[in-house]
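SAMPLE LOG
Freezer: B-3
Tube label: C17
Construct: single chain, 66 aa
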Amino acid sequence: MITKEMTVSEVLSMDEKYEKIFEKYFLTCAGCPGAENETLMQAAEGHGIDLAQLLEDLNREDRNEF
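STRUCTURE (predicted):
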């Protein structure tokens, strides 16, 4: 399960399939130097993104529900 405490790079390192979810939210995290230390919560807050929706989408992808 993907949680708000995980860093962006942790999620991206799990599987490249998550990159398309970040792109959906216009987060080009793969090349961002902040991805190493920034949690999903910090990324959502910093970019004005609904954290609950981002987590739902990432976890749906994790369960292959897309």
